[in-house]
Structures are given as structure tokens and as C-alpha cells.
Write a structure and sequence with these properties.
The longest helix is centred in the last third of the chain and has 25 residues. This protein has 4 helices and 12 strands; from the N terminus they run H-E-E-E-H-H-E-E-E-E-E-E-E-E-E-H.
Amino acid sequence: MDYQHTANTVADCLLSYRKDDSGWKICKKSNDVIVSWRPSTEFPGNVYKGEGVLNGSPEKVWDCLKPVPNGLRVKWDNNVKKFELLEQITEDITVCRTVTPSAAMGIIAPRDFVDVILVKQYEDGTISSNATHVSHPSCPPQSRYVRGFNHPCGCICVPISGEPNKTQLFSFFQTDLGGFLPRSVVDSFFPSSMAEFYSNLAKVVKSVKDH
């Protein structure tokens, strides 16, 4: 499988989501984030966009977000129970497995996801993670977990001109949770879970010391 090509395609896809304002409908607002959605072109579900400003430099925010085993993300993100590196493809591209806990008062059972992830830095200081589902020989589906599938998703940390200690964070999620979940459960889970994601991230960014 050409993991490299797949990962680069995701980065292009997320940039296009960020630039294309058409069709997004706001479904949740909080002090930390505005969450919008529109129908996905990747699968029969929705793509969700989060947009908020965090009080921390892009580097600091990225430290809290970066997809690495034993990183900060596992400590604060309630939707990430375990994160495992399956294969390092290049310096910036990995194949990883994420395990999520049960959610929505137990209606959503524990799941695992296998993704290729590209970490990309742009000349303007923007840092992004870009992920989508792949298969990997070392990690077939396991009976204890429902195998879910992430379609192009990730986070984009954008510097704010003139404000070095602030970061605009875009996040995109479009996940096929697999199994047999009622659509209403899925549609209510993502907006509230993304609002919680931004709220928890804002707290942890505040607690992390500057470099």
C-alpha cells in the first residue's frame, strides 16, 4: 500500500475543507469552539469542522496534540485511551493504532482505528496532522474492539499574525464508527465530543510550560 501517497492526499483534502466555506451548518457553539457539519463526500455520514482560538503558541498547542505514543494527547483527550506506533514510514509519516473507550453512556462500545498519519509544517508556521484509515498486516481487527474507520481528518494549528501566543485551531473529523449504531447517536456524539475536545485542550495548553 502506498501510505505516502495516501497521507499526502489527506493533507490536500483538509486544506480544501479549510478554504471552502460553502455548505457548513453550525451545530454547536461554546466559548472555546464553533462546531459545524456538512455531508461527507467520503462516506454516508457527516464531516465535522471545529474552529477556535487557543491561548498558546502553535508549538505549545501542537505539543498537546501531536500523535505520538506516550504523548500528552492520551492524558487529556477523553476519546484516546491508547495510541500505538505500528510502523514509521518516513520521518513525517507513521501508521498508528488508536484505541477509544466506550462512550455515550456505554451505547458506543470501545473501538480501534488504524490510520496513516502525516505531520506537515508549512512556511507560515502552520502545523498539521493529517490522517485516514488504512489496513496494516500487524493489526487485523480484534474481537474486543469494533474496528472504526477515520476518513480524512486531523488538526491544523495556524499562527495568528501579531499574536505569537495565540493559535487558531481547525479540526476535522469524519468517522465511520462501524458496528450498528443509530444515526441519531452518532450525530449527537460528535458535536458534543468536539466541544469537550477543545475545552480540555484549552485547559491543558494553559497548564503546559512555555519552551
